Amino acid sequence: MSDSKPTLETLRDTIDQLDRQIQELINKRASCAQQVADVKQAGMEEGEKAVFYRPEREAQVLRRVMERNSGPLNNESMARLFREIMSACLALEEPMSIAYLGPEGTFTQAAAQKHFGHAVRTLPMATIDEVFREVESGSAHYGVVPVENSTEGVVNTTLDSFTHANVTICGEVELRIHHHLLVGANTKENSISRIYSHQQSFAQCRQWLDAHYPAADRIPVSSNSDAAKRMQSEWNAAAIAGEVAAEIYGLKKVASNIEDNPHNSTRFLIVGREHVPSSGQDKTSIIVSMKNKPGALYELLAPFHEAGIMLTRVETRPSRDGTWAYLFFIDFEGHENTESVKNVLKHVEELAVYVKRLGSYPKAVL
Ligand SMILES: C=C(O[C@@H]1C=C(C(=O)O)C=C[C@H]1O)C(=O)O
């Protein structure tokens, strides 16, 4: 080794000094966030409640972190660190409670933590409808619900809830879904004859299971966390679940990333009660009902095409009350405050029987 190379000791001294500076800067930042809270509070009228969480500002901060990043840490790692710093700063302004589709350890909880960071209180709900109700009633600040999976398609319960719920979409999160085969301390790994999981996870790991455990019974349960909980008392059972469930229940991974499609991902929506201003890169979601006549969908989509607005999702659901033939769930790029989106929405409102605006929100950053 040449003499000019730094020693372990000098490198660690440098790291210690840098840590001290980073810590000081983070606390300076936190103190600014506290002052922001005071400014927000002071700007309120009598009886009005300040809104501390600003999704559009957080999206802008994270996008800037990624744009200016020059490594060696990659953009995503750097943004995740800032995600946690902002989460801790926001908790100083107001500790937030986030309702999600539980139980503890589900992918929806992982999505909530990916979006809000770890300095929030996550509240597990038994059903998707309950998540909506918690937000509507003000018992939770925000809610997180799954909306579509790249392998298994849309989550119909979520779409149906949007038709009657009084909430606003204020964000989206995408999560890569990795499944693992998990066992407990008492499991005899060579004798696995029963595997617990949620029906969707079995569907997402079908080929792997056929190849590795063709004879094991596949027992569907209400969630992957439930699977992780149940198998612990059985010496010949395993569970398929994700990382968070493995951690919570202290399980060992026998096989990792066993999903058949390596790009398996789920999209989640964040619901709240306030409208979100534009972040510069936004999406808008609406529900539209049209009379059942030839060319209805064509007629509905034409204004988007003419305005050059990019559609990101179109789902069709039969109307459940019998009065309308179809409900279309449409996501498109742009914020409802921009001229082009305002014009398109006006046009759509003229054509449709009914339009419900679900909200404009920043495109997922992480
Ligand atoms: C500090 C603010 O409040 C919150 C905290 C943020 C942060 O730590 O950067 C950003 C947006 C808000 O969710 C703000 O609105 O600027």
Task: Give a topology summary.
Layout: H1 8-42, H2 55-68, H3 75-93, E1 97-101, H4 107-116, E2 121-125, H5 128-137, E3 142-149, E4 153-154, H6 156-164, E5 168-176, E6 180-183, E7 194-197, H7 199-204, H8 206-212, E8 217-220, H9 224-231, E9 237-241, H10 243-248, E10 252-255, E11 265-272, E12 282-290, H11 296-307, E13 311-318, E14 326-333, H12 339-351, E15 354-362
Parallel strand pairs: 1-2, 1-3, 7-8, 7-9
Antiparallel strand pairs: 3-4, 3-11, 5-11, 6-9, 6-10, 12-14, 12-15, 13-14
Helix pairs in contact: 1-3, 2-3, 11-12
Bound molecules: the ligand C=C(O[C@@H]1C=C(C(=O)O)C=C[C@H]1O)C(=O)O.
The ligand C=C(O[C@@H]1C=C(C(=O)O)C=C[C@H]1O)C(=O)O binds at residues 33, 36, 52-54, 57-58, 61, 86, 89-90, 93.
Report on this model:
The protein is of the alpha/beta class. Among the domains are: 180-263, D-Maltodextrin-Binding Protein, domain 2 (3-Layer(aba) Sandwich), CATH 3.40.190.10; 276-362, ACT domain (Alpha-Beta Plaits), CATH 3.30.70. Helix content is 41%, strand content 25%. Strands 1, 2, 3, 4, 5 and 11 form a six-stranded mixed sheet that branches. A five-stranded mixed sheet has the order 8-7-9-6-10. The chain has a four-stranded antiparallel sheet with strand order 13-14-12-15, with helices on both faces. The model has no long low-confidence stretch (mean pLDDT 93). It binds the ligand C=C(O[C@@H]1C=C(C(=O)O)C=C[C@H]1O)C(=O)O. Ligand ISJ binds next to helix 1, helix 2 and helix 3.
